[in-house]
UniProtKB/TrEMBL annotation, chain A:
Residue ranges the record marks as coiled coil: none
GO molecular function, one term: ATP binding
Alphabetical list of Pfam families matching this protein: ABC_tran
Phylogenetic classification of the source organism: Bacteria, Bacillati, Actinomycetota, Actinomycetes, Geodermatophilales
Annotated organism of origin: Goekera deserti
Chain ranges of the ABC transporter domain: 7-242, 254-497
Cellular-component GO terms for this entry: plasma membrane
Entry's localization field: Cell membrane
Keyword Transport belongs to the record: yes
UniProt keyword annotations, A-Z: ATP-binding, Cell membrane, Membrane, Nucleotide-binding, Repeat, Translocase, Transport
Membrane-topology descriptor: Peripheral membrane protein
Annotated protein name in UniProt: Sugar ABC transporter ATP-binding protein
Automatic annotation (TrEMBL), chain B:
Record's protein name: ABC transporter permease
Membrane topology: Multi-pass membrane protein
Keyword annotations of the record: Cell inner membrane, Cell membrane, Membrane, Transmembrane, Transmembrane helix, Transport
Transmembrane segments: 20-41, 53-74, 80-98, 105-125, 131-152, 173-191, 220-240, 261-289, 301-320
PANTHER family: ABC TRANSPORTER PERMEASE PROTEIN YPHD-RELATED, ABC TRANSPORTER PERMEASE PROTEIN YPHD-RELATED-RELATED
Pfam families: BPD_transp_2 (PF02653)
UniProt keyword annotation of Cell inner membrane present: yes
Gene Ontology MF, one: transmembrane transporter activity
Top-level taxonomic group: Bacteria
Subcellular location: Cell membrane
Amino acid sequence: MTQQPLLTLERVSKSFGPVTVVSDVTVHVHAGAVQVLLGENGAGKSTLIKMMAGVHQPDGGRVLVDGRPVQLPNVHAAEQLGIATIHQELNLVGSLSVAENVMMGRIPTRFGLVDRRELRARARAALDLIGLDVDVDARVGDLGIARQQLVEIAKALSVDARILVLDEPTAALTRRETENLFRVVAQLRARGVGMVFISHHLDEIAEIGDTVLVLRDGHAVAEVPASTPEDELVRLMVGRSIDEQYPRGTGPVAEGTEVLAVDGLSSAGSFSDISFRVRQGEVLGIAGLVGAGRTELLRAIAGADRYDAGTVTVRGRRLRPGDVGAAVAAGVGHVPEDRKAQGLVLDASVNDNLGYATLASTARMGLVDFAGQRRRAEQVAGTLRIRMHDIDQPVRSLSGGNQQKAVFGRWVIAGSTVLLLDEPTRGVDVGAKVEIYELINAITAGGGAIVMVSSELPEVLGMSDRVLVMRDGRIAGELSAAEATQDAVMTLATRDVAPAQP
Amino acid sequence: MTSTLEQAPPTTPDRRTRVARFLADNGALVGLVVLCVALFIATPDFLTGRNLLNIGIQVSTVAVLAFGVTFVIVAGGIDLSVGSVAALSSMVSGWFFASAGLPGWLALLAGLLTGLLTGVVNGLASAYGRLPSFIATLAMLSVARGLTLVISDGRPIPTSPQVSFLGSDVGPVPVPVIVLVLAALVASFVLNRTVVGRSMYAVGGNPEAARLSGLPVQRILVTVFALSGLFAALAGLLLAGRLDSAQPQAAVGYELDAIAAVVIGGASLAGGVGRISGTVIGALVLVVIRNGLNLLNVTSFWQQVVIGLVIAIAVGFDVLRRRTRTG
C-alpha cells in the first residue's frame, strides 16, 4: 500500500457553533482497499464522510484527491472527482424504474424524447458491473432494501466513481444480503475502487476491512489493521471513564412491586420476543446501537405503534395494542425521541402543552377546566424550573432543555407512574441534563418506574439500576448496575447474539 | 428563581410598536374598517339601513358555512364539500316536507341531520380511511351535489314554513342575522371552551404530538367534520329560507367563499391557528367588497378579480407577519 492514496483528508477539523465534532483527523483511502471508520454514535464518523461527500467543508486541514488539494464546496463537486456516497437513506425515486434511477440526470434522448432502448441498455451495463440481476423495468419501490442499495451502488459506478463511501450499508440487511453486498465489495476492491465503510457490527470489520480508523469524541485514537481482535476494538472505541455527573444513588434498590411487565413482545422488522419486568422505584436502561429496535420497542409499549405478538401489562392491567389513550389512563407517560416532531405542539403555549394529557380527564361535561389546568401547569413549571417569561408564550420559544422539561411536565401533571423516556437528554445543555436526572430520581423516589432508552452510554450506565442491551431487535443481555461497564455493554451490543441463543 | 423574575425589568414596548403590533395582529379587521370608510365616502348608498341589513343577510350564509370550515382548518384539514352539503341538506329537508309529508319542524331537523351524517362520512374517510381530507371532501362535493339533483330531479322544492321562517324578519331584524349571531356564539364556545375544541388546535398543530399525549385524534377528526357538515346544513337551510325553496344549484362554489373567509380571518391552512371572530371578519370583508362593488356598478366579472386579489393580499400579509415574528 505504498502507492499514492486516492483520497486523503489531512488533519481536518469541523465545529458546529461551540461544539467541535471532528478534531485534527487524517484519513487515507487507497485504491483497492476498504478503510473502516469505527466509533460510538457522536464520535464524528458521519461528519467525516460528509466532508468527503462535499456536504460539510472542513474548518481546518485539507482534502487531497490523487495527492492534489481540492475544494469540495458541494455534493456535485465531490461526484465530479469520483467520490460517491451511499447514505443510509437511499437516494432513489421509488416510483421510477431501475433504469430511470440508474440513469437519473443522464437520461439518453433522441429528438427530445426519451430513448428507451438506449436507457435500458446503459442501465443494464451499469448493473452488470456489479453482477446485479434485476429487471431494469422494475419499479425501484418494489425491490427490497438490499437490492435498492445495490442499484444505488451501480448508479454511482456508472458515473465513474473511484471512491465509494458506504455509510452503515449493512444496518438494514439480513445476513445473506450482507454476504451478497460483501461479494460486490470484494469485486470492487479487485477492480481498484477505494472504499470507506462504516459499520457498528464488529464482526464485519475483519471480514471486509483492510484498515480501521478508530474515532472517539472527534479525535482519531488509533489506526489498526482490520484483523485486530474485537475486544481490543471495543476498548479503543469507548476507553474512557464515566464522569461523576450522574446523581443516581448506587445502593441496592428496595424490592418494589412490579409495575410494568412486557412479555414476548414482537413486531416484524423491528424487534422480537422481548420480555422484561420493571419494579417501582427502578430505572431500567435500554442500551444498544441505533437501529437495534429500542425506539420501536418503547413506542409499542406506549401504544404509539401496534405490535404483532406479546403483551404489555401495567399494574396487572393488560394494555390494548396501539392505543395511547389506554396506556395514558393506565399511568404510562412517553417522552418521545424527537420532542419537536413528536412531543410538542410548538406554536401552542407552554400552558396548553403541559395540559394535553389531562385535557379530557379533568373536564366536566366536555368543558375544559381552564382554571385547574392553569394552576397545575404553573405548579409543575415551578417545580421543574421551566424557564420562561410567561406560561402563555409559545413553547417554540423555549430552549431545548426547557422544552424537554415541558414534555416531562405533562406526565408529571397526569400523575404517570411508568415513564418511557427515549433519548431524554438529546440536544439538552449540561445544566438542564442534570435537572432531568434529578427529576428521574424524584419520580422513582415517589414510587414511579422508568424505562430509559439512550444512545449516550455514560448516561445509561450512570442513571440505570439495571441495563438491558438490545441488538438486532433482540435482547442481547441484561446487566446489573455493578456489571454494566462500557466494555460489557458494547460487547453485547455489537457481537452477534445468534450463536448464544439455543 | 421567582425573585430574579420579579426583578427583571418589565418589558413595556413603546406605544408605536404596540400600535404596529395591534395593526399586524388585526390586519383583517383594519382592512374591513378601511373598506367601510372608503365605501361610505364613495357612495351614499352604502351606509343605509337597508343596505346594512342586506349585508347582514348575505354574510350570514357565508359565515355560518365558514364556521364549520374553521373547525376543519384549525384541525389541519380542509372541507371542500360544504357548498354541496348545504344544498343537499336543504333539498332533503324540502323533500321530507313536500313529498314525504313530514311535519315542518321534523323536516328541518332531517335537513340538519343530513349535514351531520355527510360530515361523519367525511370524517370517517379521512380519519380511519386515511384519505387526505382534500380528496375525501372533494368526492363528497360531487356525491352530495349529485344526490341533490337526483332527489330534486333538477327542480326546486318548496320548503316547510319552519325553514321559510329562517328567511323572514322579526320586527326589523332579519332572522338570518339572529341565526348568525347564535351560530357564532355556539361555534366560539365549542372551539374555546370544550375539550374537543381545544383538542382541535393540538391535532392541527402537531397530530403526532397530540396522539402521543393520548388525545383520541381520530375521534376528534370525525367530530370536526361532523360539526362542519352540521353548520353547512344550517347555512343551506338559511339559503333555502330566503328563497322559500330548496334549489338544486344552491350554494355552488360557496365552499371557496367559506375557505377564503376563514383564511382572511387569520387561520393557517397548515392547521393549529384560527378563531371564529376572525372568520366573521373574513366573511364580512368578502361580502362588503362584493356589496360595495355592486353599489359602484362594477361588473361581477371584475368583482371576481378583486376578490381573488384580496385573498392573495390577506394571506401574503399573514405569511409575512409570521416570518418576521419567528425569524
